[in-house]
Structure formats: structure tokens, C-alpha cells
Amino acid sequence: MMIKDNHLGGFVLNGDERTYYPQLWETLINDFNIKSLIDVGCGEGHSSYFFHNRFVEVLAIDGSKKVLDSAVFDPIVIHDYCTGPYIPDKIYDFVWCCEFVEHIEEKYIPNFIATFKKAKYVAFSHALPKQGGYHHVNEREPLYWIRIMESNGFEYMEEESLKYRKLAHDYFQVSGLIFKNNTLLG
User: Can you give the CATH number for the domain in which 131 is found?
Assistant: First the structure.
């Protein structure tokens, strides 16, 4: 059942199997030696819980207070990126962000990019044009997101993106992108 929360989008009660990728996550943990992770748009925290159980320190962030009623991970930071940036107080190894960016109007993109900049690597999926979905206000082609990220000091990792898409299904398989933060890693 979809829980809708106006401009914050929504989440699937008890998790969305279309955004659950244990094989992909396990491989990312090993390949990128992930010890700390920011989960942007975490919903109830199913991915956060998975990473936490693999001994990864997790900062889970979602905009909807409604997730707290059924959350499987604690704590979840509640932050609406339409109100401003959220800037963690330390550097993390990785950002995981699945089916979030299409819910943010273009003028607010710098707010979540500020969070992304606090990690060495970023992996996210995005809705493609005409995909449709509740409160999808920014469905774009991959090149749009690649240009945004590159203009903010990130390098698109095309080979890795294609490799890790094969370990996923549904959303990440279709539109998963991985970036290296050149500001932090040079």
C-alpha cells in the first residue's frame, strides 16, 4: 500500500521490493569497502537496515514523518529538501539514493546535492521521462543527472554503473548511476 505525503512523495508500507537489492548492496559494500553510508530518501529504512546489519554506519534521511510509524530502522532523520540543504557533519564513504530525485523540483536540487557532497561515492536511480508516479516532478534522461553531478564536482562512473545495474532489478537496473566525488577523492 502506497502512503502518500503531498510534495514529499511517498513510500510503500512494509517496503517496496522494486527498491530492495541485497545482491547489489552486498557487492557495493565489498567493492567500495563501505564503512559508512547516507541513505537519502530511505522511506521506512529497509535499505538502511540491510547496510546496518552488514556493520555499515548509516545516516538515514527521509522527508516524511509518516515513515516513523512503520520504520524498520532507527534513527531516521526527517528533513524536507524543499526547505533547505541537509549537510552531515562528517564525510561518508557512500550515498545510496533510490527513487528520490524525481520527487524534487529542479530549483531544490542544490539542497540534496549538498548532502551528496559529503560522500566519496554516490549511487542513485531516477525516473525517466513519462515514467509516471506519485509526485514525480522531475523525470529526466540520464544525461541531465550526469551533467548536474559533473557540474558539482562528481565524475560519472559509466563502466561501474553498467556493471552494478546487472546486479539489480527494476528501477536501479534501468536508471542506476554511480559517481565518484572528485572534490574528496581527486
Answer: 3.40.50.150
- Exposed e or buried b per residue across 68-88, where buried means at least 16 C-beta atoms within 10 angstroms of its C-beta: eeebbbeebebbbbeeeebeb
Q: Is the pLDDT of residue 186 over 80?
A: no
Evaluate whether 12 touches 24 at the Cβ level (below 8 Å). Answer: no
| Total domains present in the chain | 1
User: How confident is the model at residue 135, as a pLDDT?
Assistant: 87
First to last CA, the chain: 44
Q: What is the mean pLDDT of residues 75-79?
A: 98
User: CB–CB of 117/153 below 8 Å?
Assistant: yes
Residue span of the structural domain in which 79 resides? 2-185
Please give the pLDDT value at position 80.
97
- Three-state secondary-structure class, residue 19: helix
pLDDT reported for residue 13 = 80
How many residues make up the chain in this entry?
Answer: 186
DSSP state of 93: E
Residue 115 grid cell: 548532502
CA 141 – CA 134 distance, rounded (Å): 18
Instruction: Give me the phi and psi of 66, to 5 degrees please.
Output: -60, -25
